[in-house]
């Protein structure tokens, strides 16, 4: 199975405004063709651009992409992702134009599955993708560190889409009861090496599943110096023990 995702510009109208001309025809042909070819994914229009993600059997995806690339109803096509995938990020072909406001959760799996690609873009590429996917937010999460923070899970993630569901479930259980210190998670070895723990935590954070608070500083132990008891001191002196 493979996935291709691209962004293209819609054609310019007579008044030099980019319009999604022909989109309704594209939607109806895709609605018919894509399920027949076991192709899932989405198409969306925003600010003069299309974003399309298609996933399915290698031959079908490549065949469709060749047709799409040659279609004169769009231009300046930038394929930002083209490669094999273990699992689909979408469970069907979204038959209507994808609405990022109402359906944003659907895109989370895609963003999580392709996080490393999505964050490696230059500024021009980021500006093209930003209207569809909040790359800046992804960047912010990627740079985040969780050392000395307490983490608590606010909502249960979709374990169908993760590669080690049992491990992730155990981690989730740990984070549900009360805020749990990241340092203890990372150093326990129970969930893999510290960088692996960070990766899982980032995925939760990216999906807005985490509450993050500063860890309580470890209280310094105050050693109370015992002062010699004056009374016993006096007795000892009296008895000649001093
Ligand atoms: C932005 C864009 C996206 C498209 N997406 C699809 C698609 O997902 N599925 C599809 O069958 N055709 C899609 N098309 C249309 C194809 O380019 C082609 O016109 C259509 O598949 C009909 O091909 P046929 O004449 O070989 O049957 C898209 C076209 C454009 C411009």
From TrEMBL:
Coiled coil: none annotated. It comes from the Bacteria. Pfam families: BLUF. Residues 1-96 form the BLUF domain. InterPro entries: Acylphosphatase-like_dom_sf, BLUF_domain. This is BLUF domain-containing protein. It comes from Psychrobacter alimentarius.
């Amino acid at each position: 199975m493979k996935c291709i995702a691209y962004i293209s510009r819609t054609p310019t109208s007579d008044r030099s405004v980019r319009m999604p001309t022909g989109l309704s025809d594209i939607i109806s042909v895709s609605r018919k063709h894509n399920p027949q070819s076991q192709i899932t994914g989405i198409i969306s229009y925003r600010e003069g651009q299309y974003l399309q993600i298609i996933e399915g059997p290698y031959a079908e995806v490549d065949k469709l992409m060749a047709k799409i690339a040659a279609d004169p109803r769009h231009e300046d096509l930038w394929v930002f992702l083209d490669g094999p995938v273990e699992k689909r990020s979408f469970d069907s072909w979204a038959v209507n134009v994808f609405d990022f406001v109402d359906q944003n959760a659907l895109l989370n799996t895609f963003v999580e599955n392709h996080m490393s690609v999505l964050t490696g873009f230059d500024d021009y590429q980021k500006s093209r993708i930003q209207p569809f996917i909040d790359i800046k937010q992804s960047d912010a999460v990627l740079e985040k560190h969780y050392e000395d923070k307490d983490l608590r899970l606010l909502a249960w993630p979709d374990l169908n889409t993760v590669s080690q569901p049992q491990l992730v479930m155990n981690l989730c259980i740990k984070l549900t009861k009360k805020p749990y210190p990241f340092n203890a998670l990372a150093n326990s070895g129970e969930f893999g090496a510290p960088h692996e723990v960070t990766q899982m935590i980032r995925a939760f954070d990216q999906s807005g599943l985490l509450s993050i608070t500063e860890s309580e500083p470890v209280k310094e132990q105050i050693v109370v110096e015992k002062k010699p008891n004056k009374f016993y001191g006096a007795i000892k002196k009296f008895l000649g023990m001093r």
